[in-house]
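Working notes for the structural subgroup meeting. M.R. asked for a predicted model of this chain before we commit to crystallization trials. I am recording the input and output together here so anyone reviewing the notebook later can reproduce the run.

Input as submitted:
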Amino acid sequence: MNEQVTQLKDRWRAAEAPLIGLGLFLLALLPRAYALQRFVTADEAKWVYRSAQFLAALLRGDFAGMTVNLTPAVTTTWLGSIGLAIHYQLHRAAIDLPFADWLTSLPEFRTELDILAATRWPMVMLTSLSVVLSYYLLRRLLNPTIALITAAFIALDPHFVALSRVLGHDAPTTVFMTLSILGLLLAIKPTSAPDPRGDNPAVSVSSATSTGSSHSLWLLSLSGMAAGLAFLSKAPALFLIPFTALVLLSNVWRNSAALTFWFKRLLLWSLAAYLTFAIVWPAAWVDLLGRPMAVFKNAFLSATDEEEAGTEGHWLVPDLGPFYYVVNGGFKLSPLVMIGLGLAGWQLAMSNYQLANSTTPVKSQSKEHNKIILWFLAFAVLFTIFLTMSEKRSARYILPAFPALAVVAAYGWLRLYHVAGGKFRDVRQAAQVVEPTTDQAFRPTFVIILIVSALVTLLPYAPYYFTYFNPLLGGSYTAPGLVKIGWGEGLDQVGRYLQRVLPDSRVGTAYASTVAPYFEGDLSSVTGSNLEVVVLYSKQVQSGTPSPAFIRYFEQIGPIFSVDLNSIHYADVYPGPAIQPSLGLTPGLDTFVLPKPIGFRPLTPYGSIGEALDIDVLWLADEPLPRQPSTVALAPLSAFDFSHQGHDHGETAPVSDDDEDRTLFAEGQGQLTRWTDNLIVSRHRLLLPPDLPRGVYALLVDGRPLGELELRRFQLPDQMKPLDGLVFDKQIALRGFDFTLTADYIDVTMAWQAQTTHLPDYTVFVQLLEAETNERVAGIDTQPVKGEWPTSRWVKNEVVVDNYLVTIPPDFQPGVYKIIAGLYRPETGQRLTLSDGQDYWTLPSTLFREEE
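Returned structure, recorded in token form:
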């Protein structure tokens, strides 16, 4: 019986590590693989594009062209390339393009969800496998229990999960930096007793001269290789260079004779890192020194870019300064890790106190474990300081410190277990309980409780793991007031709403590439012109972008749709148009004293010819507000000169004194009114004349430049004969017509109306046909408005009035004729059809030609 029990124990010991490894892989994989198409982060579309460019350059042998970014993000583009290659093979028939052509056809700022998911899968697999590998390395470095707890913490860490299931460079950087540190600390870990003679400095400081010397060198080389991959992932990984030097050379202080020994090992590590960097990045094959130097230079420029950092607004959140990563990192820490860090700090302090005051020998293993834990803690602290020195900051950048903190936290929890277990045993023994519970009996239960607690913390945030904020620091209640929130999560719901409710609208939004996969309409910036919808996102609102007055104005209007995720407000959808900045504030032209217009907003995307138009003007003004109303006027664009400005029409100049330029087509007065604190608005109604031509006009406020306004026609002119029910392929309707017949020509005027936006360019035909044979006698084929206003530029419900003159040929024969009109695709000649299947419309008039 005892022999069978022993055999079972031996079998379990043999299978324990592989089974735990498999369990950890699944524990890491499942939350990362869940709902990979749910949302898109702000940078992923460009990383899909860069991965395609990277792989396309490789396929054509253009190694220099594989420098798609100097971050350098080579591991990211390799992972993206693997995903693209697999996706192409699985969908080759549907794609129906050569591989290289398909790669170059992928757009830069819009990605399809199935392609995005394909590029995310290699990242999911890499990070899940790294959890298992970290576990095996930590088993050797510390002990199996700390290794298991650490691996579970890493697998279920909300910040790491969030970043390891998207295509980016933060997760690969974290993976390879962590593996590099683990290999480094394993390489210097003693594997045999010190030389009893004590006269060999090399033996007394490390295992390097023990029986494990070659093994240590291999570990050091593998650490360097992982560092090289980390350098290829992201520039902050360069921190490994001084940290590795610190770890290796810290052994010298005990014996200066060991300096050469450790310096050689630092050179070995550096050589392994450099060779990996050069081999894995083909761009370095043609420039072995230039590519690494370019990465170093780019890292320095990025870290010291004060101009970019200076554009970072802090309207609703404080500028945290040197505490940025402490606060942002704290909000992203798991509660278990944060508590474990406190426990570890207490235990390390107590351990050092006991070492200093104890008269009994201390186990060398405990001392070695404490030393390793302190190195992990030092890495996290020093890396945080290293990042703080940079001007460019993001909560994502602190991620490489999280696995190291997980190790320290696991140590803290295990020490708590040992302390509590020891006291529990003392109590049971004092009560004379026979067979006191052993440490081994409860340890698996303790570890399982920690893993379940980590799962309970993580799963409520799936799949929007970016919405996690540490509940120990107040979570969703305190985070929005202290740190910036939002990297695209929530905008997927905005896109789905717009596609469902407003599919043809023109939308202004930050992070347009995150909305694009879910919405097929036009996307622009939040200050774009002619917008029908404006989307304000959490991070931009916290920054006061594009301006606090802009945000306050739309908040007063009220959203038509909002997105909240895990008790955090992420996005609001407002009716457009957007507020346009006042041209009167152009440098050199700002002749206003208070009150001063800072922007204006027409209440419709386009001014509608022949109808009333309301315009809001936003002001800066002192109290009391002026009693005299302000006047907004519509004038020719020549009312101010744009010949020297860098936007569409040039720099604005004061209003001309020329009489023609002073023509005012419409005027409207409005009283300045305080809507809310720091928001002053005047509303003006302008009656637009029905005979104005379509085009761009100038807006003046109190005789000074305010901005531009585009007018289009959306109503049928009164003098035209109305038509109803004539819609060609549900795209373009014929709403009215007029015509004149003479002996020499047929003059036809038609009013077309777009039923949707994003029309192709169609050609209009008007033809004179023999009534019975449908033989074409005369006709004209032309782009609308003689090619000046093609259908691709029409917007939904716009009415375009166009005139067509058909010349009657001199040999016009007697008979009965009809006049038809329609549209067709010029590339194919395919005509658009009406609801009855007819591919043209016949004018309600018959032409008779009698014999002379």
